[in-house]
Write a structure and sequence with these properties.
Layout lengths: L2 H10 L6 E2 L16 H5 L3 H4 E3 L2 E2 L10 H5 L5 E2 L2 H8 L8 E6 L8 E3 L7 H8 L3 E5 L9 H18 L1 H7 E4 L14 H21 L13 H16 L6 E8 L8 H5 L5 E5 L4 E6 L9 H5 L5 E9 L5 E7 L1 E2 L6 E2 L9 H96 L8
Parallel strand pairs: 5-6, 5-7, 7-8
Antiparallel strand pairs: 1-4, 2-3, 9-12, 10-11, 11-13, 14-15
Helix pairs in contact: 1-9, 6-7, 6-10, 7-8
Length: 449
Amino acid sequence: MGFFTRTAMDMLMKTTHPEINRRQCWNLHPHRKPCTECKDICPYGEQIFTRPNLVKDWDPCTECGLCVSACRSGCIIPSPEQVQRDTSAADTDNDTIWIGCEKSTRKNSMVRTCISALTWETLAYLALNKKIVLDLTPCGECENDLCAAQLRKELTRLVDFFGQPMFEARFTLAYEPDEALYHVKELSRREMFEQVSHGSKSGTKKLLQMLPGLHSEDDGGVDFRLLLHQRTKQLKAAMDTPLKYGYYLPNFTDKCFGCGKCEKACRAGALKLEDLPDGQTRIVITPWKCSECEVCVASCSNHGIDGMKLRQLTTLGPVSVHKCTKTLCKECGKPIAPGSVDGVCTVCRIKARTKKRQEEAAARAKQLREEREAKKAAEEAAKAAAEAGADAAETAVQTAAAPAETAAAGSVITALTPEKAAPAALDETPAAAPENTAEKDVPDTPKND
């Protein structure tokens, strides 16, 4: 890479640590056990990550790349500096790239914290340009089980991608200190200038891809896979019989009816549904965008995706993997399963069931309200009748009691009258006696004849 290219690249690289696209994280999808691979494999995981996909502080980050290679959904985006550092070895003058870790005592052209810090896509991209020697001499004494497991997974994936014969032709696994030793290829003056010119052009091309406005945000987390895709296209155009590469893609079955749940669940945009003129729908997958996270498998409720299947591809460009005929819901027009009895989707069925229950509840509430009103009216009528009967009875009692009271009053008056007359007679008797006495004492006057 030329001086200008390197200087311009350094100026454009504002970030020296990975970035996280949280919307693509596996933990945002339904699952039983949360994924903590990025936090577990990072040497400073407790200081950097508050929890998976949420960063507390990037300052302790050494940009080793372990979290990028370990992320199962590809939501951790490597920095431009890391992409350039990991892929620049493909532009060197040597025909072989020696890769080792910091614990190795051998001389290597690429030294990383761990070989597993390089993603399998990066190793595949380098292997399509140069032969690779992996220095595994320190791995036997390494105590980091997570890195060892990650390296085994990457090597297995590389075997699936290249196939066993091609993997053995492009990769050399050095387990002994004296195996596949490092050496420098001697170049003539002309070859040296050709390598410098080629490296400068390659670096400028990568620089232009990273310029603002030319680098899509959707492709931010797939830089290594994009480079791998571009390299496979170059080899396909240059070869009469193109090579085939193994890539895991969703295995769609006849149960798929094109509902589109998998397309919505795929945050990387690797899966698309396209309507054809003949009324069918085909599912197109872009392998270089697919991180093989299996989120689409988990999102399919009709079991239309039977896991991931290894397919042999000549490039990592879009490929059609399934075709189906849609059966649409007669209510909303969304795709439904072909064997649907009532011809409506689940949402419309739930809406109809809910509407029916609401109508039944409203009718039942109306009936209960009418019953309560009738009962209340009956109670009020009974109460009014009882009050009227009570008033009538009271009136009758009062009417019947009036003569009795009158008779009783007359009896009382009658009973009281002799008692009042007797004293009067006693009072009158002494007064009459003098009159009689006077009459007796007065002499009779003689009548004149």
